[in-house]
Amino acid sequence: MQPENIQPSPAPVPHPSHSTKTFFGLAQDAGPRQNFSRPAVNDDYLTRFPEDPYGRETAPDARAWRVYVEEAAAFDENMVGQSRDGLDVMLVFAGLFSAVVTSFLVQVSQNLQADFSQMSALLLHDLLLVQLAMADGGTVNVTTPSINPAEKFEPDAIDVWINGLWVISLTTSLVVALAVVLVKQWLHRYMTFPSGTPGLRSHVRQFRFMGLEKWRVLIIIGMLPIIMHISLMLFFAGLALF
Prior knowledge:
Number of strands: 2
Oligomer: single chain
Shape: rod-shaped
Distance between the termini: 119 Å
């Protein structure tokens, strides 16, 4: 007897839940996806840097100094980069604000001295009245002029306050601009390392970092926006009195 022809059964269709991933009922491709995450950094310094020979663990080109230089470079770049961005914005704002305050101050400072053009106009008016009185044959009173040029000029108290507030505001903004320039130069010098062995670069970096902490440079950077806010408040106070 010959065996009967047996038709092969169709292969079962895999269920989407088994072969493909779904997201809210929609089938997702199970293929490889592009990874947008940050690439892993190889921080295994034992494999990246060769082992030091015996007795040269503290040599100028030892592994310890190489590790220190690389770690310090990453730390300094993060620290100085954040501070540098804020200082650039602060410098531009302080310069523009100082120009605005100066334009206001130039106009208001004229109120602190006598207006000689107005004084000349009043004296000419008195002279004209005298000439008119003489032409009509009337009496002329020259003992009481409209204004006495020899009299000491005293500005109004409100003008003194406005000028004082705006002068202080301009001074503080210029101090902030000067401090920003000095700090930016210091940070640029801090990030510039001399060429040499890793040991020498490590010692220079540590010396500069100790100076940064000694002079409280980061605290000064944090105080600059506060001083700038004080300058703004003084300007607005004078503007309210204007």
